[in-house]
Amino acid sequence: NNILVGIIANTLGTLKYGQGDYSAAHGMFLRALDIERRTIGDHSGVYAVTLHNLAALAAVQGKYGEALEEFTQVVRILETRFPPNHERILTARNQLASTLVQLHQYKHAEKIFIEVLRVERAAHPKSHPALAATLNNLAYLYQDEGRLEESQRFYQEALDMFTMLVGRKSRPVAVLLGNIGSVAQGLGDIRSAEANYKEALD
């Protein structure tokens, strides 16, 4: 049936995205969205999944204006289908805020990240991957905005959490150590920056 064709088109789009064939992926996602819109409507969960994929594709290509519009629509659809603390809504809001950071819309992005953090802190134990990721995203926002002391604090909390979750010798921890080193360097703390850079490389 038609909806099955739409799902297959979305799956093919995801495959092409993974292969780096962004043009083919874009075409497949648009085809899937058109079929889904005509068969089950543009407020369905299936439509939101495909639209999310299209938004992620736009973001990875640096088309942040398109990604912002699409992530915003995804959030609106999900908010009609799930409670406010649902993981899918929180993930989509995180991605929306990260897109806003790329567009230097810091105040709007910060507001979303802080609200997501509030919900995640209430919903999850002290160490949780989603919570750690949001802390990292907020820290990046502050770093990009030049609020280095705040950035350092949130990076450190994310680092402590990821260390508990996946161990000190892991890629997320290495990336965070590099980020913390960069912030320390920006603050003029060269000794701390060097120590973090070295540990990131170990």
Give an overview in words.
It is a single chain. With 202 residues, this protein is mainly α. 82% of the residues lie in helices and 0% in strands. The chain contains ten helices and no strands. The protein has helices at residues 2-18, 22-39, 45-60, 64-79, 87-102, 106-123, 129-145, 148-166, 171-186, 190-201. Helix 2 (22-39) packs antiparallel against helix 3. The longest helix has 19 residues, at 148-166. The chain is elongated. The model has no long low-confidence stretch (mean pLDDT 96).
How are the elements arranged and paired?
Blueprint: H1 2-18, H2 22-39, H3 45-60, H4 64-79, H5 87-102, H6 106-123, H7 129-145, H8 148-166, H9 171-186, H10 190-201
Helix pairs in contact: 1-2, 1-3, 2-3, 3-4, 4-5, 5-6, 5-7, 6-7, 7-8, 8-9, 9-10
Keywords:
single chain; 202 residues
Secondary-structure class: mainly alpha
Most strands sheet? none
Order of helices and strands: HHHHHHHHHH
End-to-end gap? 53 Å
Name the overall outline: elongated
Measured by DSSP, the beta-strand proportion falls in under 5%
Radius of gyration: 19 Å
Task: Work out the number of β strands.
Answer: 0
Tell me the helix content.
Answer: over 70%
Weakly predicted, low-confidence segments: none
What is the averaged pLDDT score?
A: 96
Give the structure's gist in a few sentences.
By secondary structure, this protein is mostly helical. The chain contains ten helices and no strands.
